């Protein structure tokens, strides 16, 4: 599955992407904000990531700039207790340009197309930028703050939980004014 947004192309990871993925995520400042990525992030982790079989109902994508195909991050939808969970990372040189929001919006469009009615997400409390992205996408805080394990930190850290109901929305990630 492929998806084109205004500035980005979301596509499945290919085996030859491992080196670019490693270059973007092998940054402790990126990995510490993720639950599942280990630190240090090594070449074998990137190779394993790109070799995982695709799961059509829960896709994962590399995020590339549409103008030059440069890989700048990843976004995906994972199963999570009766809902879909949105996860993403953007390489540090591309922070602050709206790419996480744009990639998240595209992933929510895909989630809706796949029939998901509820999407959840969370962010570690020491990563408020991710909370801002989630709110821009239309997620609402559930009020729950729980410990969540971060492989990159090697420990639990408090994470704020969010949810977004896609049913009845005219466009995922866009709230009516």
TrEMBL record:
<dbReference type="InterPro" id="IPR051531">
    <property type="entry name" value="N-acetyltransferase"/>
</dbReference>
<dbReference type="InterPro" id="IPR000182">
    <property type="entry name" value="GNAT_dom"/>
</dbReference>
<dbReference type="Pfam" id="PF13302">
    <property type="entry name" value="Acetyltransf_3"/>
</dbReference>
<dbReference type="InterPro" id="IPR016181">
    <property type="entry name" value="Acyl_CoA_acyltransferase"/>
</dbReference>
<protein>
    <submittedName>
        <fullName>GNAT family N-acetyltransferase</fullName>
    </submittedName>
</protein>
<feature type="domain" description="N-acetyltransferase">
    <location>
        <begin position="8"/>
        <end position="167"/>
    </location>
</feature>
């Amino acid at each position: 599955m492929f998806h084109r947004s205004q500035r980005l192309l979301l596509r499945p990871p290919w085996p030859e992407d491992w080196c670019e993925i490693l270059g973007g995520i092998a940054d402790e400042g990126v990995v510490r904000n993720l639950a599942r990525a280990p630190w240090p992030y090594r070449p074998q982790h990137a190779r394993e990531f790109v070799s995982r079989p695709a799961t059509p109902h829960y896709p994962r994508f590399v995020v590339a700039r549409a103008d030059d195909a440069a890989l700048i991050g990843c976004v995906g939808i994972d199963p999570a207790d009766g809902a879909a969970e949105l996860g993403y990372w953007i390489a540090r040189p591309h922070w602050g340009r709206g790419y996480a929001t744009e990639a998240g919006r595209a992933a929510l469009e895909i989630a809706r197309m796949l029939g998901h009615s509820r999407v959840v997400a969370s962010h570690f409390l020491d990563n408020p930028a991710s909370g801002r992205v989630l709110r821009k996408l239309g997620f609402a805080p559930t009020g729950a703050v729980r410990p969540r394990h971060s492989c990159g930190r090697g420990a639990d850290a408090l994470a704020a939980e969010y949810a977004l109901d896609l049913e009845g929305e005219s466009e995922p990630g866009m709230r009516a004014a």
